[in-house]
Amino acid sequence: MKNIDVEIYLNQLISFFEKNPNDLTELIGTSMKETFFDKVREACTENVENGDEVTLTNQQLINIVLDIKGVKGTKEELEVINKIFVKNKFGTFCLN
């Protein structure tokens, strides 16, 4: 069963990346788009099931990107990546 909040969040994220395709390419590359959005949907659904906010945390987004790219980062590398993402009342976005 699809959660409406998850679908709304995912549609907003997809819309953002459709308007800013270079941002998505810089984030995950060119061939992992569907995998990225599938993993975002899974994480959002898990958040809702756990009673958390539907929006992903910086760390969750970082973990998805690292998982897609097959990167096992050090703590220092993860801290640098974490500073790239900013969360505000409109959602999470990437500063690059």
What are the main properties of this structure?
single chain, 96 residues, mainly alpha, 66% helix
Task: Provide an overview of this structure.
By secondary structure, the protein is mainly alpha-helical. The chain has one domain (4-87). The chain is built from 5 helices and 2 strands; from the N terminus they run H-H-H-H-H-E-E. The chain has helices at residues 4-19, 21-28, 33-49, 58-69, 75-84, and strands at 85-88, 91-94. A two-stranded antiparallel sheet has the order 1-2. Strand 1 and strand 2 (91-94) form a beta hairpin. Helix 1 runs antiparallel to helix 3 (33-49). The longest helix is centred in the middle third of the chain and has 17 residues, at 33-49. The mean pLDDT is 83.
Give a brief description:
66% of the residues lie in helices and 8% in strands. It has helices at residues 4-19, 21-28, 33-49, 58-69, 75-84, and strands at 85-88, 91-94. The N and C termini lie far apart (36 Å).
Helix/strand layout:
Blueprint (H helix, E strand, L loop, with lengths): L3 H16 L1 H8 L4 H17 L8 H12 L5 H10 E4 L2 E4 L2
Antiparallel strand pairs: 1-2
**Estimated share of beta-strand residues:** 5-15%
What is the number of domains?
1
Number of strands: 2
Helix content: 55-70%
Give the structural class: mainly alpha
Largest sheet: 2 strands, antiparallel
Rounded to an integer in angstroms, the radius of gyration calculated over CA atoms is 13 Å
Which stretches of 5+ consecutive residues score pLDDT under 50?
Answer: none
Strand order of the largest sheet: 1-2
